[in-house]
Design brief:
The chain is an all-alpha fold and 210 residues long. The chain has helices spanning 6-25, 32-39, 43-50, 53-77, 84-95, 98-101, 103-116, 120-141, 147-170, 177-192. The protein is built from ten helices and no strands.
């Protein structure tokens, strides 16, 4: 019988071993046997906790997503300024955090995106992640822009974040976090600058009675 409290420890070991295996050989060749060996457990332990490899991959992606969401949430709570720009900046920084742009994480994200096109359960997970980013961005843009412009700005910034991340991941070089963030900030500021400035209402002159 497993020790009390061992389950979360064992699950985390297997998730970290999955990241390591994908980093070494890619998701296709990251077999149950290899992951189990890297985690120092038997193959049966993976079946016990995750049923199969797809279950383990899904758990690994939920872990990466939870780290992203927790980092962003903590940073937003710590903000001293409750402005749309401050919140948007934190969201951008979270998506380019070291937890998301290190080698194992990037390779796992890339493999997950490709695999999600063929696995319904992973596709649902990807849709949830995409919607969360768009929704968070749109909520902040909506504070200063009309709804249609806010939605357009959110879609554009979400696409830019994903595109910058993807180009960085495929470059083969160390991810240039500063450059990626700066490009995203510039787009963000262009969108925020569209907020309507107060217009001065001029009263039409009264008709002459002369």
């Amino acid at each position: 019988m497993p020790k009390v409290g061992m389950q979360p420890i064992r699950r985390q070991q297997l998730i970290e071993a999955t990241l390591q295996a994908v980093d070494q050989v890619g998701m296709g060749d990251a077999s149950i046997a290899l992951i189990a060996r890297l985690a120092g457990v038997s193959n049966g332990i993976i079946s016990h906790y995750f049923q199969d490899k797809n279950g383990l991959i899904a758990a690994t992606m939920r872990y990466l997503m939870s780290v992203l969401n927790e980092n962003v949430a903590a940073s937003r709570l710590a903000l001293k300024e409750d402005s749309p720009r401050a919140h948007l900046q934190v969201i951008i920084e979270g998506n380019f955090d070291a937890s998301q742009v290190n080698g194992p994480a990037m390779k796992t994200w890339l493999a997950f995106w490709a695999t999600s096109m063929h696995q319904p359960s992973l596709h649902r997970l990807q849709r949830i992640n995409d919607h969360r980013l768009y929704s968070n961005l749109c909520c902040q843009f909506r504070r200063v822009l009309p709804i249609d412009e806010a939605r357009s700005a959110a879609r554009g910034l979400a696409a830019l974040i994903d595109g910058l991340w993807l180009r960085g991941a495929l470059s083969g070089d160390a991810f240039d976090t500063v450059q990626a963030q700066q490009i995203a900030y510039e787009y963000m500021d262009l969108q925020l600058a569209k907020q309507a400035s107060p217009t001065i209402q001029t009263q039409a002159p009264a008709p002459s009675t002369a």
